[in-house]
Design goal:
Largest sheet: 6 strands, mixed
Strand content: 15-25%
Number of helices: 18
CATH topology of the largest domain: Heat Shock Protein 90
Number of strands: 22
Low-confidence stretches: 386-408, 420-425
Radius of gyration: 25 Å
Helix content: 25-40%
Structural class: alpha+beta
Number of domains: 3
Length: 491
């Protein structure tokens, strides 16, 4: 019998950024980690009474009221600041489940009070709880005060030493002024009110727009074939943001196919991917990336089969991918966003993804895919040679690209971030590739892994046994219906 209960449908989709389930109530610190991580990220539900195969096993003979009291006591004893989740019973086909639903809290950041903020502040990445670094803790504290990272003053830079021409020229092209008052209104500059000098300083947002910081750059690569093994062309752009956008767009155009169509005496040239869609995705990457992490930048890869745009920083301020696809907008960098709006680079908040899809539909090309993979946002635009025609609907569809060799390559840096330096030395290339492939597609089979990594299925299985034994990966559920999880080593 088909079960249509909304929570059951949610459970069958598996654990995620906003969902975790357990057969029984976890111990105090384990429960608190999950609830704190939910509160610091996008909220979520912890469901008790579900096994690793996503089957409903219920709560057994436990006293439900006593169980709810235990949860309340653990939250009070372990979590700080105070969490106020909803704790309730859901009955699905006469099976009782306990649901602990946490909402994104207003008193960020949350942590385990017995250990303190720095070592015990957790966030949610995919279906795992991760310790938040100092940069993430600082970002959460700013969010509590409703201040974006780019609104902060940079006291190391003197305002009168900056060349504002890249910014003022853009405003002048639209017949808009950018005098001192306008700079203040846009929070590009701020007064330091902490002393009597009342001095003006640039904000981080202004310096980002001017390309002042080393990590504010876009790296573009054209690869031979569908992997990152061989470069054909490579460029790095690190000047002002507006020039970076123009140069990145020009790089992409240079490596896309141009198609000509002659109608009467008129010839029309069009790119295989609509340029307005690419431009929108580039703007999205620049406007929403996480600039607080100085070790990462925007990367663009042009392969034979896709155009790939990767931006550092997951979805901001508690958003989920479902929220984004519905048009909800949360601005991570309010100064940059405000300037883009003034320069008519942004039409309406939350409309960018819909426009990208519309551009592709209007030109009858495959729709791109948008994913949040760990702490990165990833756009993949299929190129024409990867599109197939649905004969029933006469509509082009993108090929399934859950796990590809290039995806394995580009996730390597992210895995290194999770497990520390020297990862390749400890694991070897094949084990690292297995873990990266699992990060991309946590339901991937041994047969698929063997095909992608180009080793035997037996070798894949032996490497998986080693990774499981040494706590690098974990299997949830059965071989057919379960999924993999990449662990922080030592978890």
């Amino acid at each position: 019998m088909e079960i249509k209960h909304p929570l059951y449908i949610e459970i069958q989709q598996g654990e995620s950024k906003v969902l975790e389930f357990k057969q029984q109530l976890p111990k105090g610190d384990a429960l608190a980690k999950t609830l704190v991580a939910f509160a610091n990220t996008a909220g979520g539900k912890l469901i008790i009474g579900v096994d690793d195969q996503r089957g409903l096993i219920g709560l057994g003979d436990v006293d439900i009221f006593e169980l709810k009291d235990r949860v309340s006591s653990i939250i009070y004893d372990y979590c700080a600041p105070t969490l106020l989740p909803e704790i309730y019973i859901e009955n699905i086909n006469n099976v009782e489940l306990l649901v602990i639903e946490v909402f994104r809290g207003p008193s960020l950041p949350y942590y385990l009070k017995q250990q303190g903020k720095a070592p015990a502040c957790y966030i949610r990445l995919a279906a795992t709880n991760r310790v938040a670094g100092q940069e993430k803790i600082a970002e959460l504290e700013l969010q509590r005060r409703n201040i974006s990272f780019d609104e902060q003053i940079d006291y190391e830079v003197e305002l009168d030493q900056l060349d504002l021409t890249p910014l003022t020229s853009r405003f002048n092209q639209l017949n808009k002024s950018l005098d001192q008052q306008q700079l203040l209104n846009l929070k590009l500059i701020k007064y330091d009110r902490s002393n009597s000098a009342n001095k003006l300083y640039p904000t981080i947002g202004l310096l980002i727009l001017l390309g002042h910081y080393e990590h504010v750059e876009i790296k573009c690569s054209r690869f031979k074939g569908n992997t990152m093994a061989v470069f054909i062309d490579k460029k790095e752009y690190s000047n002002d943001i507006f020039s970076q956008l123009e140069q990145a767009e020009a790089f992409i155009k240079n490596h896309l196919h141009l198609h000509a169509e002659v109608l009467g005496l008129q010839r029309t040239d069009t790119y295989e991917i609509p340029i307005p869609a690419i431009r929108e995705a580039l703007l999205n990457a620049v406007m929403h990336r996480d600039y607080s992490n100085v070790g990462r930048d925007i990367k663009i890869g042009v392969y034979d089969d896709i155009l790939n745009i990767v931006s550092p920083g997951g979805l901001p301020n508690g958003l989920t991918m479902s929220d984004v696809l519905k048009g909800r907008s949360e601005i991570r960098n309010t100064v940059i966003a405000r300037v883009f709006k003034q320069l008519n680079l942004v039409e309406q908040w939350g409309s960018g993804i819909a426009r990208i899809k519309q551009y592709c539909q209007d030109t009858d090309v495959a729709l791109p895919t948008l994913t949040e993979t760990g702490d990165f946002i990833d756009w993949e635009f299929p190129r024409i040679n990867t599109q197939v025609v649905n004969k029933n609907k006469s509509q082009k569809k993108p090929l399934d690209n859950k796990t590809s060799t290039k995806a394995i390559d580009k996730l390597g840096d992210r895995l290194g971030d999770r497990l520390g330096d020297g990862l390749g030395d400890r694991l070897g290339d094949n084990r690292k590739k297995i873990m990266i492939a699992i990060m991309k597609n946590n339901t991937i089979s041994a047969t698929e892994l063997a095909h992608i990594i180009s080793i035997s299925k037996t070798a894949i299985e032996n490497n998986i046994k080693w990774l499981k034994k040494h706590n690098y990966i974990k299997r949830h559920g059965s071989a057919k219906t379960g999924h993999w999880e990449v662990l922080d080593h030592g978890k």
